[in-house]
Amino acid sequence: DAGVTQSPTHLIKTRGQHVTLRCSPISGHKSVSWYQQVLGQGPQFIFQYYEKEERGRGNFPDRFSARQFPNYSSELNVNALLLGDSALYLCASSLLPAGGPIRNEQFFGPGTRLTVL
Amino acid sequence: DAKTTQPNSMESNEEEPVHLPCNHSTISGTDYIHWYRQLPSQGPEYVIHGLTSNVNNRMASLAIAEDRKSSTLILHRATLRDAAVYYCILRDVLQGGSEKLVFGKGTKLTVNP
């Protein structure tokens, strides 16, 4: 079975531009989460989508938006790019939006490395 | 807003056991303790999780203190492939019943041959 896939692998943009990152979850997974990982730090939560609805949003500006499609794939959009947006953007999928006592592990993709010049 | 604290780095020799500590003094009674690891140039991957009792799986063991304010991830025989950043995580429940993983900086484990 294919794991979580993300595209593109790497991306270079300039300040002020817009970027779209894509994620395909594991087959059967309906929940997709996005995380930003700046060099030397742990991943920080951006969004969670479940059944095409936004279920959670982290402390990120409105320049960040996302959506989930009927096939459960997802896009992360970032407008008006800043130098500080340079990071590894990770997508994670899981069966459910929350686990509670059950495992419900999040499966991460390899990420998209975004460089803003 | 990480709820856990871990040493920045640890070092081990191949074939030896490794004990990775984590403090989570503000843990609530219903919080599960999760461990993920991130190998170089990869996304994080699940290692193990537990609530109160010690847990074992094929990758590792998780020892949870009786007061649940700390836990230890145990790799019984470290291999070079275990070199990674290990994250101890408490999930945050979001409105609407969903959850997010709250990562700290993690512990970078170096395994020497």
Give a description of the structure.
The complex is a heterodimer of chains A (117) and B (113). By secondary structure, chain A is mainly β. Chain A contains no helices and eleven strands. Chain A has strands spanning 5-7, 10-13, 19-24, 31-37, 44-50, 53-57, 64-68, 74-78, 87-94, 107-108, 112-116. The relative contact order of chain A is 0.32. In chain B, the strands form two sheets. In chain B, strands 1, 3, 4, 8, 9 and 10 form a six-stranded mixed sheet that branches. Chain B is mostly beta strands. The termini of chain B are far apart. Chain A binds chain B through residues 4, 31, 33, 35, 40-45, 48, 50, 55-56, 58, 90, 92, 97-99, 101, 103, 105-111, and chain B through 2, 32, 41-46, 49, 51, 85, 87, 91-106.
Count up the helices of chain A. Answer: 0
Q: Would you count the extended β strands of chain A for me?
A: 11
For the largest interface in this structure, which chains are involved and how many residues does each contribute? Answer: A-B, 29 and 28 residues
Kindly state the percentage of residues in helix of chain A. Answer: under 10%
- Distance from first to last alpha carbon of chain A: 37 Å
* Uncertain stretches of 5 or more adjacent residues of chain A: none
The biggest beta sheet of chain A is recorded as:
7 strands, mixed
N-to-C terminal Cα separation of chain B, in Å? 36 Å
| Averaged pLDDT of chain B | 92
Helix/strand order of chain A, N-terminal first: EEEEEEEEEEE
Strand content of chain B is: over 45%
What is the SS-derived class of chain A? mainly beta
**What quaternary form is this?**
heterodimer
- The total of beta strands of chain B comes to 10
Average predicted local confidence, pLDDT of chain A: 94
Q: Percent of residues of chain B in helical segments?
A: under 10%
Inertia-based shape of chain B: globular
Shape verdict of chain A? globular
Computed CA radius of gyration of chain B, to the nearest angstrom: 14 Å
Low-confidence stretches of chain B: none
